[in-house]
Write a structure and sequence with these properties.
The protein is an alpha/beta fold. The chain is 37% helix and 23% strand. The longest helix has 22 residues, at 104-125.
Length: 126
């Protein structure tokens, strides 16, 4: 991670499938044309082959990694729901967001905010 921060989407395979697919679509909508290295997807409960299949069928260009649920030591992880957060190079987690399937405007606001942060971080680099 050479950038000041990255957006991370975490989910467990046992989470709401519609919620996961919806957020994957939103990530593509907001971030596909921006540096895809800025978005990281962490998934627990799937093997390597399943991750590759998930990436292929959903046309995901972002980095996607398997992680054991216990490895992600965030209090929010206890609720067993998909969530997003920003993480710095130093490992500081901030701007945690729980998407609400039926309140798209909250997700849109969050993604717009993160997108603006990413664009501004590029401007600040130059």
């Amino acid at each position: 991670m050479d950038d000041p921060f990255n957006l991370v989407f975490y989910f467990d395979v046992s989470n709401c499938e519609t919620c996961i697919v919806t957020e994957l679509e939103r990530l593509k909508e907001y971030f596909d044309e921006i540096d895809i290295g800025k978005v990281i997807i962490l998934v627990s409960g799937m093997g390597t082959r399943d991750l590759e299949y998930l990436k292929k069928i959903n046309h995901i260009n972002f980095e996607i990694y398997h992680i054991e649920r216990e490895q992600l030591r965030l209090p929010i992880n206890e609720y067993k729901i998909p969530f997003l957060f920003l993480i710095t190079q130093e490992g500081l987690v901030f701007s945690v967001f729980i998407p609400e399937l039926y309140e798209e405007r909250f997700s849109d606001d969050y993604y717009e905010h993160v997108r603006n942060l990413i664009i501004n971080s590029y401007i600040d680099h130059f």
